[in-house]
UniProtKB/TrEMBL annotation:
Origin superkingdom: Bacteria
InterPro entries: ClpP/crotonase-like_dom_sf, Enoyl-CoA_hydra/iso
Source lineage: Bacteria, Bacillati, Bacillota, Bacilli, Bacillales
Protein's name according to its UniProt entry: Enoyl-CoA hydratase/isomerase family protein
Any Pfam family hit: ECH_1
Signal sequence interval, chain numbering: none
Amino acid sequence: MEAFEKLVIERDRHVGTVSIRKSADTNVLDSSLTEELSSAFLILNQDPAVRAVILTAEGDSFLAGADLKEITGLSVSQAYGFAEKAKALQDLIIHSGKPYIAVVNGHCLGSGLELILTCDFRISGPDALYGMPEINLGLIPGGGAITRLQTMVGRTHAADLIFTGKLVRPEEARFIGLIGKVSDRPLEDARFLAETLAGKSTLALAVAKQLFNRKDTEDSSLINQEMRALSMMFDYPDSMEGMGAFLEQRPPVFKARREIST
């Protein structure tokens, strides 16, 4: 198997588990992790022995969004390229014939939350925290959250998450439909679910998942609009101010609105 620096891949009978290693600081979805996750998903998708996949993370953080140190200062074209790689990673989950189960402990924010929105099941530990804080950085979600959240939690809850940047605890996340279950033993519950799914017809599961994801396929042009809108914001002062303020641990000072064509 391919060697990974930021991941641990395990196979237990018909279940494949991808665990993001705990980083020295906070887990972020940077370019190197995106590439490793893409390779891991491709391996498990192509392995006929694997019938279900669990995605989780070690330690007390799942994914706290993109790496601001990496994306601050990107040009518009570079930002769009970054978003394209994130979408390609999501597509490996969406277009896989195998069910994916996300198991979340700790922070699951921004692009991390967008990633688990593409999973078929989401099981939360009691200490998880969910949100789309991009608005606080002078940005917007650019990886499908604006489109997918409206379908998943409804327009009102989606606007609350995206427009305010609020963070929600697991019980609220479950109440609005963002996650399916809160558990004191989320990984054990995910393994039980994965084994149950592994005992089903692989063809029937693959077809059912394809039909479930029809709307995601139909909404691909809307998600591309999100990607373009996000990348255009890297050409405006607010994004530089917002990301810079976060890295400098100070409140941002945003200027008057300028229009961006989507």
